[in-house]
Amino acid sequence: MSWSRSIRAAAGIVTERTDEEVASAAEGRILALLTPVGWEQIRTQRLGLVSLEMLERAGWEAVSTLWEERGIEHALHD
Predict the structure, then answer these.
(1) Cα(70)–Cα(66) distance, integer angstroms
(2) pTM > 0.70: yes or no
(3) Domain extent at residue 51
């Protein structure tokens, strides 16, 4: 995304952060590991947004069940 200087200033954004900087500042935990094939399956079945919304509303177990029903290659992470 590109910001003009005036919009960036109005939003209070002084400098942009790289993806790596944003990721390192985020707190979270790994729930599952996807294989490249699993990611392609999620993309082709258009399950990315559905999975994120389901995670927010119903939790990880619901997403895992959906992926298992759809044959998405993944491994649960401890």
Answers:
(1) 6
(2) no
(3) 5-76
Q: For residue 38, how many other CB atoms are within 10 A of its CB?
A: 17
Contacts 24+ apart (CB under 8 A), 36-43: 37/73, 38/67, 38/72, 38/73, 38/74, 41/70, 41/71, 41/72, 41/73, 42/67, 42/72
**For position 43, what pLDDT does the model report?**
95
Domain count of the chain?
1
Distance CA 73, CA 31 (A): 14
Judge contact between 36 and 24, C-beta under 8 A.
no
Closest CA to 16 of 1, 28, 26: 1
- Condensed to tens digits (0 to 9), the pLDDT of residues 24-78 reads 776 777 888 888 999 999 999 999 999 999 999 998 899 999 999 999 998 877 6
Beta bridge partners of 75: 33
